[in-house]
């Protein structure tokens, strides 16, 4: 691949040299070429003209013309306000297009005055001849053959110039800030920091100038625009007809009047003739096609300008458009180069494609066949996967380079502040000499990082962004997500609605004395488990929102640890909005259900009232799996992916979000049982009579146990997967913890379901539950949180703490122990006269969710500080290839 690119580059260079030698230089006299002027500050005006040119070209596409004739011309407004005559409307459309084109041509002719090629200086005469029909440009070879490639190239220039304008504004602000700081003669450390930042900004501006129109020559830009203008004129003639009377009438009016002001056609011809005589008598150059300026310009355009230093590799697609005049000697040289092309590089024989065991298929194949790298096969699927991995690798590498640059900037600023404080205390003036040493060190003046940044940007934009700088930089530098006021307002509004609905619900229950009615027991056994599911979900969402708030407050890098895509992570306000929205709909359904039962007019519609929870659950499921880009689509996809990985364990490689979501599911056992109750209650038709006959079914009781152990069994399989891959004994002990929990849940379930041998089941459930609770508590405090370290400088805690109040950690440990043993209620049968059994189950489940929310904060804090899970010491992206060096070792 490298050799092929080198041969193509050499072939283009040989072709360019031969063209220059044969066509652009006179054999008798060879004059030294003068340096060509660059666009410079006029690049912004040229970018505006290019944008208008691209817009004009696209307005002449087949789809736009068809829309113009079928929709615009036949619309009622146009027929009533303008005209119903299609020929007259066509005349107006042609006039508008020619006016726009003539404005562009006038700018091109003005820029052509600064070109070094005399033929480009006379573009106004060429365009005048074309418009007046004096030249049949179809017989000439200077039109753009692939207009789409030319348009893409112009769009790249426009986007790069826009980015240059923005970066230059930032650079100007930095320069002004430095001047103000220097005048105040204070904050010298800030001056140093701003100067360092200004240096980096100038490097960015310098690279953008090379990619934009700023450093392009007048000859190159005017030639590009001139060819495009003539091609667009040909497109206008093709679309509206060569023999169209409208186009003939507009030729003289839109040609001479726009370019030559008020000169008559005869005067214009006389002046053109005199200028042609001047060109002939000048003797500075020779053109093989005569002295007519139009002919000179066409010959100038028909010759490829590949000798221009600004025509780099990205212009190779445009070279296909240009009429290539290559001699037989050049063709012979190119053919000889192609004949001598070497065979593929030997290194490719040792390159293998890495296949990480990330899918069920790859996992099974890896277990059966062993971990072997596959051969290098350039299939479409392999190339797509390789491209995606390389894209991720480039993005992560670029992000690390930016972090390294920020690290350098912050350290230089820190040195400056330290020295300022030192000078203030010791009354010495050591800052200047010491900071000079810092600036000359690698920390302050190393250009290697900037060169790497520029190389990564150039490579990524060229190969992964279709040479579109704006698109590439948006991927490399995603903008930070901005908090919107409407999110804050919506969150507050929904929170107020939840509070109001809760008050209304208690008022309805109190005033109508619903708890004392005969159907209270029936309602608690049927409808309460259905609605409690939404309560569990909302409570868990609120705890997660609180976690995000405190993670941000104490600077826990949770988005990096979870692997969220930058800019797509949800803030605590968005999470609160989701939780409050679900709470509002759930409370509305509860109140509507109670109201319809009490109201005599709607009391007979029991079947419909029973369907309200099911309708709400289906609506939540649809909103969760909705494929459209609404309702936080990226976050929903991330959640569903992790959820699928949890249920498909151990067929997927275990990542931190996967096992952390598995831990959350272990605290939602009662919610999973509520889903099982939904299936039984509505699937078996109990909702029609509001009866709960699910407990009488052996299948329901069996699944009552299976559903409860699914989260723990999933975590057990994840631990076994990590034990198998990482050979870490600690994962084996972690799996043992979940195995003991599965046994304890099984025994507690058997105790609550079986009516025989209650005492034996109770004793066994108590013993295993106590062992599991003690084991889990120790694991939480010591391994997950990293606390209870006697040798730590923070006694019984750990060395690194983010929360300054140490008592918070002790309170959290006590709460974790108390809430861990909330399961005692299921074994000891705590009964309260004022609380129904289903209410007690919901309270215990809610306490477990609260405990999990507290656990989440300290677990991620410990991961952030100590990387206890050995996941995120630094973020690595596996490359798609590896190189087998065994052969090299043998040599």
TrEMBL record:
Pfam families in the record: DUF3475, EXS, SPX
Stretches the record annotates as Disordered: 248-273, 305-336
Superkingdom classification of source: Eukaryota
An individual GO BP term: cellular response to phosphate starvation
Record's bilayer topology term: Multi-pass membrane protein
Membrane listed as a keyword: yes
Keyword annotations of the record: Membrane, Transmembrane, Transmembrane helix
GO cellular component, one term: trans-Golgi network
Composition skew (Acidic residues), residue ranges: 308-320
One of the record's GO molecular function terms: inositol hexakisphosphate binding
Entry-linked PROSITE patterns: EXS, SPX
EXS domain boundaries: 695-891
Cell location: Membrane
InterPro entries: DUF3475 (IPR021864), EXS_C (IPR004342), SPX_dom (IPR004331)
UniProt domain SPX: residue ranges: 168-436
Transmembrane domains' residue ranges: 487-509, 529-551, 572-594, 614-632, 637-655, 699-717, 738-754, 760-787, 808-828
Family membership: Belongs to the SYG1 (TC 2.A.94) family.
Name of the featured protein: Phosphate transporter PHO1-like protein 5
């Amino acid at each position: 691949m490298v050799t092929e690119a080198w041969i193509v580059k050499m072939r283009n260079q040989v072709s360019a040299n031969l063209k220059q030698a044969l066509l652009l230089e006179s054999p008798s006299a060879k004059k030294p070429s003068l340096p060509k002027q660059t666009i410079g500050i006029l690049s912004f005006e040229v970018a505006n003209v290019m944008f208008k040119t691209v817009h004009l070209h696209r307005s002449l596409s087949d789809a736009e013309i068809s829309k113009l004739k079928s929709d615009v011309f036949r619309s009622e407004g146009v027929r009533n306000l303008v005209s119903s005559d299609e020929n007259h409307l066509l005349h107006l459309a042609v006039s508008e297009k020619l006016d726009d084109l003539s404005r562009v041509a006038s700018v091109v002719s003005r820029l052509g005055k600064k070109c070094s090629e005399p033929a480009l200086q006379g573009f106004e005469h060429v365009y005048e001849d074309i418009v007046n029909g004096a030249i049949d440009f179809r017989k000439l070879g200077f039109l753009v053959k692939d207009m789409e490639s030319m348009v893409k190239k112009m769009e790249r220039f426009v986007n790069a110039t826009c980015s240059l304008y923005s970066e230059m504004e930032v650079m100007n602000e930095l320069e002004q800030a430095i001047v103000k700081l220097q005048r105040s003669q204070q904050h010298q450390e800030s001056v140093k920091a701003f100067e360092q930042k200004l240096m980096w900004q100038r490097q960015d501006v310098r690279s953008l100038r090379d990619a934009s129109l700023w450093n392009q020559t007048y000859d190159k830009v005017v030639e590009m625009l001139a060819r495009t203008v003539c091609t667009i004129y040909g497109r206008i003639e093709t679309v509206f007809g060569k023999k169209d009377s409208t186009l003939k009438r507009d030729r003289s009016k839109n040609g001479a009047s726009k370019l030559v002001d008020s000169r008559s056609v005869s005067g214009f011809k006389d002046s053109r003739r005199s200028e042609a005589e001047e060109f002939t008598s000048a003797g500075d150059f020779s053109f093989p096609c005569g002295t007519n300026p139009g002919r000179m310009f066409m010959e100038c355009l028909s010759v490829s300008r590949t000798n221009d230093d600004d025509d780099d590799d990205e212009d190779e697609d445009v070279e296909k458009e240009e009429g290539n005049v290559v001699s037989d000697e050049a063709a012979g040289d190119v053919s000889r180069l192609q004949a001598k092309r070497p065979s593929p590089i030997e290194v490719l024989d040792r390159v293998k494609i890495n296949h990480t065991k990330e899918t069920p298929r790859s996992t099974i194949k890896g277990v059966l066949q062993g971990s072997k790298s596959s051969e290098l096969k350039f299939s479409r699927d392999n190339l797509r996967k390789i491209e995606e991995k390389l894209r991720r690798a480039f993005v992560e590498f670029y992000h690390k380079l930016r972090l390294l640059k920020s690290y350098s900037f912050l350290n230089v600023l820190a040195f400056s502040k330290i020295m300022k404080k030192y000078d203030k205390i010791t009354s010495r003036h050591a800052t200047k000499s010491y900071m000079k040493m810092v600036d000359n060190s690698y920390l302050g003046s190393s250009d290697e990082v900037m060169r790497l940044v520029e190389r990564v940007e150039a490579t990524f934009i060229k190969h992964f962004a279709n040479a579109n700088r704006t698109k590439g930089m948006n991927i490399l530098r995603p903008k930070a997500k901005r908090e919107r006021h409407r999110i804050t307002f919506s969150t507050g509004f929904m929170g107020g609605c939840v509070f109001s609905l809760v008050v209304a619900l208690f008022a309805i229950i109190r005033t109508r004395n619903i708890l004392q009615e005969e159907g209270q027991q029936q309602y608690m056994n049927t409808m309460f488990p259905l609605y409690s599911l939404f309560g569990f979900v909302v409570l868990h969402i609120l705890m997660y929102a609180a976690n995000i708030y405190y993670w941000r407050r104490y600077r826990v890098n949770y988005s990096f640890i979870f692997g969220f895509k930058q800019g797509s992570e949800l803030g605590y306000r968005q999470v609160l909005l989701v939780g409050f929205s679900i709470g509002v709909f759930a409370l509305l359904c509860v109140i509507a259900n109670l109201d319809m039962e009490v109201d005599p007019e709607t009391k007979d519609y029991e079947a419909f009232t029973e369907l309200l929870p099911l309708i709400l659950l289906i609506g939540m499921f649809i909103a969760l799996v909705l494929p459209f880009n609404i309702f936080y689509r990226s976050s929903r996809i991330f959640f569903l992916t992790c959820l699928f990985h949890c249920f498909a364990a151990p067929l997927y490689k275990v990542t931190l979000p996967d096992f952390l979501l598995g831990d959350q599911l272990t605290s939602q056992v009662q919610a999973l049982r509520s889903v099982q109750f939904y299936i039984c209650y509505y699937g078996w038709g109990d909702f029609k009579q509001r009866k709960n006959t699910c407990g009488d079914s052996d299948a329901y009781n069996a699944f009552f146990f299976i559903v409860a152990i699914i989260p723990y069994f999933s975590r057990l399989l994840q631990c076994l997967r990590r034990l198998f891959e990482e050979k870490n004994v600690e994962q084996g002990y972690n799996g043992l913890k979940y195995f003991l929990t599965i046994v304890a849940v099984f025994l507690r379930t058997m105790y609550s379901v079986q009516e025989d041998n209650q005492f034996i089941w109770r004793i066994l459930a108590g013993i295993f539950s106590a062992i599991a609770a003690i084991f889990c508590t120790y694991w939480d405090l010591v391994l997950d949180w990293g606390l209870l370290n006697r040798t730590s400088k923070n006694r019984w805690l750990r060395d690194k703490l983010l929360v300054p109040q140490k008592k918070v950690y002790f309170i959290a440990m006590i709460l974790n122990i108390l809430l861990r043993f909330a399961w005692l209620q299921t074994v000891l049968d705590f009964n309260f006269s004022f609380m129904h059994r289903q209410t007690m189950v919901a309270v215990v489940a809610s306490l477990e969710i609260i405990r999990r929310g507290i656990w989440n904060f300290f677990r991620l804090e410990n991961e952030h500080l100590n990387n206890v899970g050995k996941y995120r010491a630094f973020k690595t992206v596996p490359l798609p290839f590896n190189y087998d060096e065994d052969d090299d070792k043998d040599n």
